[in-house]
Amino acid sequence: MAVGLVYVFLLLPMVVVVLAAFNAGNYFTFPPQGFSLKWFANFFQRREFMQALWLSTELAFWTAAASTVIGTAAALVLVRGRFRGRDVLNAFVTSPLLLPQILTGVALLQFYTLLKMQASYSALLIGHIVVTTPYVIRTVTATLTHFDLALEEAAQSLGAHPVRAFFEITLGVIKPGVVAGAIFAFAISFDNFTLSLFLTSAKLTPLPIELFAYLKYSFDPTAAAVSAFAIGVALVLVLGIARFMGLEEFTGF
Amino acid sequence: MNRRARLLLLGPYVLLLVVFFVAPLLLMVGISLSRESFGRLEWALTLRHYVRFFTDSYYLSVLADTLWLGLLTTAATLLLGYPLAYHLALTRSRWKPLLIVFILSPLLVGIVIRCYGWMILLADRGLINATLVEHGWLTRPLPLMYNKFGVTVALVHVFLPFMVLSLTGVLKRIEPALIEASQTLGASPRRAFFEVTLPLSLPGILAGSLLVFSLAISSFVVPILIGGFKVHVLPMTVYEQVLSVFDWPFGAANAIVLLAISVALIGVYIKVTERALRGIV
Questions:
Q1: Which CATH class is domain A47-251?
Q2: CB within 8 Å: A76 and B102
Q3: Which H/E stretch holds residue B5?
Q4: What is the CA angle A179-A184-A188, rounded to 5?
Q5: A31-60, pLDDT tens digit by residue?
Q6: Is it the case that residue B280 has pLDDT exceeding 60?
Q7: Domain residue limits, chain A
Q8: How far is CA A1 from the centre of its chain?
Q9: Contact A139, A241 (CB under 8 A)
Q10: If both were cysteines, with which of B68, B75, B120, B208 could B166 make a disulfide (CB 3.0 to 4.6 Å apart)?
């Protein structure tokens, strides 16, 4: 019973946003004042929201692609390598996860400004890759630790080149972790607000920043439609992770 | 795996981190020690920005409020999160994957959206107040937003999943036989919980609390949107100094104070989780 109430608390704000998005009135009341799609229509007609949505999608895609490649490679060494300082390196590569993002954001803004690189697409992309790669390393590490090295060795003793053995054997086995990591990196980048805030400009605004700017001045349910859309995206991504890796494995339960 | 392969595989990410993570942070330390005159940065080694921070009563009260909100948030997430984690660790329900989705989904929904949900609920003309006033139970709306109460509620919501994840990990590893044994020896379920389960889950409690506290004191979307600039916290002063006042050295000094607190907490966190993993605590 008490547990049920905590679940209600967890889900309530999201449920309310989705209901408000489909509600006809300017203010969300209970019971709702009738079904309407006009807020979604407004969302899809506003150029600034469409541009922001496109930018966020593209950014999340490239972030996921880059961090998956870099993160998978790093995880391979961190799980299998036997060398001094491995524990230190392990802590080092996950440190962007632990540090508050506002600090990473401020530091990167000052760094980029002094390098005259501020408010550029590549600056934003690099920032996102830095904070999403540790998540990929984590999920790939989780699947890699179950992997039986004998399989790869067998392939090599049968004459396969180590690189070929990796792509044909190892990658096939650890694919769930790699795909789940990629999806998670996409989700983190797509929803990122704190880091982006410091690395954007008027011409370079991802969706969460656009939504934040909108909310500061108006309270109308177009914001709810944008939010409901993003919640839909998140839901699809969670289902993707569940499909590829299993949520219990993913969360370490 | 030989040295060359290791370098080739791990090198790119380590290089990325050194250039775009470590170097910017070191630069920020440098900026916090330098001077600003007429909008230009002058490199120097001065502690004046730190002295200003720690002698100005405004910034000290901001620091105190930040830590207080962090403490409240941590305590509340622990109280709400423990029953949830306990239930999740023990349940054999076939709905368990769905419960995990419920706990994870707030994590994957952007923070701006979650704040917006709370704005719809807590605003003066929001769902809760509007419903209460309409039914005549209230004449004036309750002050649910633009104060510390609203900020704490939203912070608890944002960081509860982290607490639940930390606790479930530890609770799952407790041997059920231990609890059964204590009950066979005559302990009531209540006593078994307080004398066996709770002490064994202490590492999870500590790890979760450190994580939530360090995340809560560095959150600034929640204070801005739910606090409406009426609740001032350290991340907001960092943001204002860097992006509105353009006083970079002082902004950097504010950030370093926050950084010092976080790094200290992270250090303890790593020690605690390491020991918890080895099962010594």
A1: mainly alpha
A2: no
A3: helix B3-17
A4: 150
A5: 677 788 888 998 999 888 999 999 999 999
A6: no
A7: 1-36, 47-251
A8: 33
A9: no
A10: B208
Contacts of B165 (CB under 8 A, 6+ apart): A251, A252, B103, B208
Distance from CA of A164 to the nearest CA of B (A): 14
pTM: 0.88
N-term to C-term CA, chain B: 35
Of B67 and A177, more confident: B67
Does B120 contact A28 at a Cβ distance shorter than 8 Å?
Answer: yes
Residue B40: DSSP 8-state: E
Domains detected in chain B: 57-278 (1.10.3720.10)
Rounded to whole angstroms, the Cα distance separating B127 from A29 reads 6
| Calpha distance B107→B88 (Å, rounded) | 17
Q: Do A9 and B127 touch (CB under 8 A)?
A: no
Which residues of chain B are within 8 Å of residue A83 when distances are taken between CB atoms? 6
Structure tokens at A237: 């991504």
| Neighbouring residues of B6: CB distance < 8 A, sequence distance ≥ 6 | A77, A81, A83
Q: How many CB atoms lie within 10 A of CB B124?
A: 14
pLDDT digits (tens, 9 = 90+) for A126-180: 999 999 999 999 888 888 877 777 777 788 888 788 888 888 888 888 888 898 8
